[in-house]
User: What shape does this take?
Amino acid sequence: MNHSNLDAIEAKEFFPGVKGKFIHGDGLSWAFWNIDAQAEVPRHQHVHEQMMHVVSGQFEFEIDGTKRLCHPGDVVCIPSNVPHYGKAITECVLMDVFTPVREEYR
Assistant: This one.
């Protein structure tokens, strides 16, 4: 069993105002994000399938050219290799699950 506590994991700033903590299993990565109001995640795509959950705040999310304002409780599924972008309208807490593992974030 691999056991961790989020308080023991150091947050890293991946983009200005976008700080995250990662936990990795054998086949997936789980990310915990704290995002400042107005901070952006640049448009990108990756081979990983991704599921995003909005824990708190309002997060504008664009996937494959379609924008949506996401609220607490919303879940977004992002297929592999589909371009996406996000912007925190307010301060946000998000969780992402990626499969396969995001090796570059280990």
